[in-house]
Specification:
InterPro entries: DUF5996 (IPR046038)
Strand order of the largest sheet: 6-7-8-9-11-10
Number of strands: 11
Protein name: DUF5996 family protein
Order of helices and strands: HEEEEEHHEEHEEEEHHHH
Distance between the termini: 30 Å
Organism: Streptomyces marispadix
Radius of gyration: 20 Å
Structural class: alpha+beta
């Protein structure tokens, strides 16, 4: 399997737009059926050997314990309960409206009462249209969906490898359905006082000082896949710090800056995996140094934190 196969947004935009809304609908069910975690860590999807999963949920809300999985190998939505019962329907041939209807029907057949808070897309162009009325988005190309999952899986493993280098508080590697990116976030431990007008989602996500690292598949604001990193709050002068590899750059966005490495630039290099790891490391050290993090204290080479074992590891 090729590392970082081609995935130009222009070739699968229609499938991505449909799949994004499918995932938002299931993500909102996850939001209402799982115990809340700090920084919304209960909400994202996790990558599996066949697609992505909500992970087990229910029980605390009176529902059976169940999972909802996207299978991008056989191209099905699969709902499985703790007793092993599994019900599915095909992803191919669904509009957002029919996907919603089929999802709620199979959940009801399993005795699951599903809530969909705010049953319309979040922060998308049609955010005022309920999922139940969306027959416009109905494209699902199995080849493109499978390629999306392949890339997601490859990036997830690189982020896991990068995450192992940090011993402080950090997020899982997870796939956010609202922004359709995969990310890992590191925390300094310092509280951040948000302005009173800050919305509740942002307040919880950025209640502590962070540097974040991830990958997105492209959207209207940046129409190509890219690896990224940012710091929140952003320390002064961050955009002056050098990045690696040479193709990486800082991009201004909404009054702050993103470190960017285009997917196509990374895949053109001799060792794309090493280049992405180097990109994340350079972005982290730039932000951590500017924000005066204790970089040495947070270092865990190869996932090792015990000093004696760390020496042996080297």
């Amino acid at each position: 399997m090729e590392l970082f196969p081609p995935l130009p947004l222009s070739e699968w935009r229609d499938t991505k737009e449909t799949l994004h809304r499918f995932e938002q609908l299931i993500g909102k069910i996850r939001l209402s059926s799982s115990s809340r975690r700090n920084h919304w860590w209960n909400v994202p999807f996790h990558v599996t050997g066949r697609g992505i999963t909500t992970r087990p949920m229910g029980q605390s809300d009176g529902n059976p314990v169940y999972t909802i999985d996207f299978d991008f190998v056989d191209h099905q939505l699969v709902v499985t309960t703790l007793d092993g019962t599994a019900v599915s329907f095909p992803l191919l041939g669904q509009s957002v409206a029919s996907f919603r209807r089929n999802t709620l029907e199979i959940l009801a057949d399993l005795g699951i009462h599903a809530e969909i808070p705010h049953p319309e897309p979040f922060d998308l162009a049609d955010s005022s249209r309920p999922f139940a009325q969306d027959t416009e988005h109905h494209t699902y190309d199995p080849g493109h969906a499978n390629r999306y999952w392949q890339v997601l899986s490859q990036v997830a493993l690189i982020l896991e490898e990068f995450a192992a280098r940090f011993s402080g508080k950090s997020s899982p590697v997870h796939h956010f359905w609202h922004t359709f990116d995969i990310a890992h976030t590191r925390f300094s431990g310092r509280h951040v006082d948000q302005p009173p007008q800050t919305d509740p989602v942002t307040r919880e996500a950025y209640s502590e000082e962070v540097t974040s690292f991830g990958f997105w598949f492209g959207d209207d604001s940046f129409a190509e896949p890219a690896f990224y990193s940012y710091a929140a709050p952003e320390p002064p002068g961050l955009e002056l710090e050098p990045l690696r590899p040479r193709a990486a750059r800082w991009a201004a966005q909404d009054g702050s800056h993103l470190a960017l490495l285009r997917y196509d630039d990374a895949r053109a290099l001799d060792d794309p995996r090493a280049a992405v790891l180097d990109f994340y490391e350079s972005a982290y050290r730039a932000a951590a140094a500017r924000a005066d993090w204790d970089i040495d204290a947070f270092t865990s080479p190869g996932g090792v934190t015990d000093p004696r074992l760390a020496v042996q590891h080297r």
